[in-house]
């Protein structure tokens, strides 16, 4: 595994924290890690975005690259047009990811919103990025009612696009799960046809870097993720 795309069933399902957890686990395994965020939306130019949060949670142990930023909290292509800023282009994103893959052991590419959110010119999506660099994807899902449908649709779209789905991660597992959450935990692998790789406790993004790294290896065991240990 050199490049791994982190997508979600929708927005606000915990992609950034899951990406940080993957990065923390990989760094703990001795890998050199880079995280690419093709498009950051909803954040002012001088404000910290998702990559700043990943840097904080990993204690600065990963290299980060942001390719475009748009201030309004919209799909990147819409936000670009409204801000009169250049739209991202697929070849630019692919070239950036490949360049990182030449230098780092693991490159994590975090999408925006759900899988088919348009990132830039000609309506390309994270699915197109993953296919172009031959990378598998992890789907971050919510735990509550509706997630079975959303997760199955996302996994089906990945497979239809020729992209391997490595599995599903629950992005914010509640401290006191209800009946729907408990049933979804059991049903997700059967409904999606891919493994449940782990679950991140809700509120984990508030942890300090040391605590986050220690716990990330329990949330996402390295052997389950198929990560090699660098020697």
Automatic annotation (TrEMBL):
<feature type="binding site">
    <location>
        <position position="41"/>
    </location>
    <ligand>
        <name>substrate</name>
    </ligand>
</feature>
<keyword id="KW-0067">ATP-binding</keyword>
<feature type="active site">
    <location>
        <position position="37"/>
    </location>
</feature>
<keyword id="KW-0460">Magnesium</keyword>
<feature type="binding site">
    <location>
        <position position="16"/>
    </location>
    <ligand>
        <name>Mg(2+)</name>
    </ligand>
</feature>
<comment type="subunit">
    <text>Homodimer.</text>
</comment>
<feature type="binding site">
    <location>
        <position position="50"/>
    </location>
    <ligand>
        <name>ATP</name>
    </ligand>
</feature>
<keyword id="KW-0963">Cytoplasm</keyword>
<dbReference type="InterPro" id="IPR004472">
    <property type="entry name" value="DTB_synth_BioD"/>
</dbReference>
<dbReference type="Pfam" id="PF13500">
    <property type="entry name" value="AAA_26"/>
</dbReference>
<dbReference type="InterPro" id="IPR027417">
    <property type="entry name" value="P-loop_NTPase"/>
</dbReference>
<comment type="similarity">
    <text>Belongs to the dethiobiotin synthetase family.</text>
</comment>
<feature type="binding site">
    <location>
        <position position="110"/>
    </location>
    <ligand>
        <name>Mg(2+)</name>
    </ligand>
</feature>
<comment type="pathway">
    <text>Cofactor biosynthesis; biotin biosynthesis; biotin from 7,8-diaminononanoate: step 1/2.</text>
</comment>
<keyword id="KW-0547">Nucleotide-binding</keyword>
<protein>
    <recommendedName>
        <fullName>ATP-dependent dethiobiotin synthetase BioD</fullName>
        <ecNumber>6.3.3.3</ecNumber>
    </recommendedName>
</protein>
<comment type="function">
    <text>Catalyzes a mechanistically unusual reaction, the ATP-dependent insertion of CO2 between the N7 and N8 nitrogen atoms of 7,8-diaminopelargonic acid (DAPA, also called 7,8-diammoniononanoate) to form a ureido ring.</text>
</comment>
<keyword id="KW-0479">Metal-binding</keyword>
<feature type="binding site">
    <location>
        <begin position="110"/>
        <end position="113"/>
    </location>
    <ligand>
        <name>ATP</name>
    </ligand>
</feature>
<feature type="binding site">
    <location>
        <begin position="12"/>
        <end position="17"/>
    </location>
    <ligand>
        <name>ATP</name>
    </ligand>
</feature>
<keyword id="KW-0093">Biotin biosynthesis</keyword>
<feature type="binding site">
    <location>
        <position position="50"/>
    </location>
    <ligand>
        <name>Mg(2+)</name>
    </ligand>
</feature>
<keyword id="KW-0436">Ligase</keyword>
<dbReference type="GO" id="GO:0004141">
    <property type="term" value="F:dethiobiotin synthase activity"/>
</dbReference>
